[in-house]
Amino acid sequence: MKIKIRYIDGARLKRAIIASSARIGEMQDALNNMNVFPVPDADTGTNMALTMQSIVDSARECPFTSLAEVCHCISEGALSGARGNSGAILAQFFQGLAEGARGRARLSPEEFAQAVAVAAARAREALSNPREGTILTVMQDWSAFLKEQALGEEDFVRLFRDGLARAHESLADTPNKLQALRKAGVVDAGAQGFVHLLEGLSDFIDSGKIAAYRAGSHMVEKLRHFHFHKMDDEIRFRYCTECLVQGEKLDRHRLQAELLPLGDSLIVVGGGHKVRIHIHTNEPDAVFTLAASHGTLLQTKAEDMQKQYDEAARLAPKRPIALVTDSTCDMPAEWIEKYDIHVVPVMINVGERSFRDREEISAHDFYKILERGGERLTTSQPPVGFYTSLYEKLAEGYESILSIHISEALSGTIQGAYNGARQLAGKLKIEVVNSRTTSAALGLIVHEAARMIEAGLPLAEIKEKLAGVISRSRIFVAIPTLKYLVRSGRLRKTQGFFGTMLQIKPLISIDAEGRIVEAGKVIGRKRLAERSVELALAHARRLINPRFIVAHMLAPELAVSLRRILQQEFAEADIPILEASPALGLHVGVGAIAIAIMGDPLPE
Q: What CA–CA distance (Å, rounded) separates 186 from 180?
């Protein structure tokens, strides 16, 4: 039975910090490789390791055994040697810990939790624009857990072990709180570094030894899927600028206010006689001049993050296949994000103005304009330049491109893809696929291609399999009114008049050649909805594991109702509901609904 650790003093904290530094040092490269936020410049691990080394050096030189004195030495070392965004936050965390431990020779678990609460609060205060999903979130969650768990707790071993589990949970949740992480498929590097620090602390408190660590296989596997081309490569503020200022009665908050207009990612830590500044800026000299007006500059640094990013991107391995489609493709945004699908926007013309579909005008806004009437609405295919510029960018991070588009018989959109592929024929292999469909059916086909890419299938095999996927895909569109078909020129006015008089409601589909065909006619809206589901279910029964998407044009209640009917027979099916592409909705109109189906073939 292990002896309980009932208190933590200066000597214990000093050795625990050395253990934490060793842990971060071992994980330095892994942290660099997952560095995404605030800038993907591949240096978080290096900066945290250098910051921790400065802390360790100061701790080792500290002649005191009192916890308060050791905390003070650690905070001074952190302030003097802090590097980068996460290093500056760590420095302020240790400043807060020293504040919380002031005057104490040792701390009980409950007293330690209170000191950590001060540390987490001070770290958050140091940032001009704190963001959730970062190291700050994990610090706060760990602190809140300690504060609650420490009540009546007498053993630091148990407190640190359970607290570490909570920190791991918080770390795993960071991609749900920060889009940049979700897009890249990684957790926050700074937060991961802080968890490594806690792992070192917990292991030392538990074993009394400074262990050596290696990256776990799960970490290596996760980093294998991270690529710099998935990040936005525009860096607004180029230089990561830092300086240490020494003076009398330095006002951290005043410095923060004066520096804020010069950039972003501003962190001002310390106070009193010494302050460290971290900021991303295009004017490092202006930062140094302003800082010098408050005291004496002891250290200055301005690193070019654009060069760091470019070098990291150059060294990053290329992925095998990029997946491209156009904005007539209706699929959930989560799929686009998860599989890193690139979407070329169709042009939406409203009167004399043109908008990029889904980028400059939403489907919902389009349908509101269509419903209101009074403005001429048309769509046009993307310019060839949209394809060539996208393909050229993808060529930097991928070995080949699979580009899947709306039926060639319905639109000239795919012509831009063909032309773009010809222009880049010498740079990389680009396969352009005619889906022979559109809207939600195209979405199901693209999703299937994404899953095959994720599974590691080669491009030639994916293209071959897609022929079968396309042949098994169907879409049925229920059109409640003929006026939009008349307005778009797809139906003569006389046909529209008599059809409306007779309450005829058409159902359309797309044939094997990618052309619109009539799937049926019914009388009345209620029968129209029933018939669309009947056709969808009839096709689904001929498949294994059928997948569905329901797309609507300002008819969300009807979409939910039809999904409910589909799930009565296929209860396991997860059926997304989306607003349909304007390219389809322009012709079938407000109130229309589409059901797309695709699945695996029955055994022969």
A: 9
CATH number at residue 46: 1.25.40.340
- The reply to whether 252 and 204 lie within a common domain is no
Domain termination residue (choose one: 471, 500, 529): 471
Q: Is 404 exposed, middle or buried (0-12, 13-18, 19+ CB in 10 A)?
A: buried
Number of domains in the chain: 4
Share of the chain above pLDDT 90, in %: 29
As a whole number of angstroms, the distance between CA 99 and CA 97 comes to 5
Q: Give the CATH number, domain containing residue 575.
A: 3.30.1180.10
Alpha helices in 44-155 (DSSP H): 44-61, 67-81, 84-100, 109-125, 135-149
**Cis before 576? omega within 30:** no
Q: What is the CATH number of the domain that holds 421?
A: 3.40.50.10170
- The Cα–Cα gap between 460 and 104 comes to 69
| CA-angle at 560, arms to 451 and 480, nearest 5° | 105
Q: Is residue 429 part of a domain?
A: yes
Do 325 and 305 belong to one domain?
Answer: no
Q: For residues 170 and 223, state if they share a domain.
A: yes
Last residue of some domain: 431, 450, 471? 471
Q: Are residues 336 and 280 in the same domain?
A: no
* Full domain range(s) for residue 68: 8-230
pLDDT higher than 80, residue 98: yes
337, part of any domain: yes
Q: What is the pLDDT of residues 550-571, one digit of tens each?
A: 999 889 999 999 999 999 999 9
More confident residue, 374 or 466: 466
**3 state DSSP class of 577:** strand
Residue whose entry in the numeric block shows the structure tokens 């004195």: 69
480 bridge partner residues = none
Task: Let me know whether 453 and 530 are in one domain.
Answer: no
**Whether residue 582 has pLDDT greater than 80:** yes
- Please check whether residue 3 lies inside any domain of the structure: no
Q: In 424-519, where does DSSP find H-type helix?
A: 439-454, 459-471, 483-487, 493-501
pLDDT band per the 50, 70, 90 thresholds, residue 504 = low
R_g of the chain computed on alpha carbons:
30
Residues 283 and 363 in one domain: no
Q: Would 1 be classed as within a structural domain?
A: no
114-170 residue pLDDT tens = 998 998 998 898 887 888 988 899 999 999 998 888 887 778 888 888 888 999 999
Residue 482 has a pLDDT of: 60
User: DSSP characters for 360-417?
Assistant: TB-HHHHHHHHHH--S-EEEEPPPHHHHHHHHHHHHTTEEEEEEEES-TTT-SHHHHH
Q: Do residue 121 and residue 192 come from a single domain?
A: yes
Nearest to 436 by CA among 519, 331, 510, 346: 510
With H, G, I as helix, E, B as strand and everything else as coil, classify residue 495. helix
The DSSP 8-state label assigned to residue 261 in this structure reads G
What are the structure tokens assigned to 484, written together?
């939009």
**With left for phi above 0 and alpha for psi between -120 and 50, is residue 189 left, alpha or beta?**
alpha
CA 247 to chain centre: 42
Q: Are residues 411 and 429 in the same domain?
A: yes
What distances in angstroms separate CA 58 from CA 5, 81, 112, 243, 484, one per listed residue?
25, 10, 21, 19, 75
Give the mean pLDDT of the chain.
83
Going by pLDDT thresholds of 50, 70 and 90, the confidence category of residue 542 is: very high
Report the pLDDT averaged over residues 78-94: 84
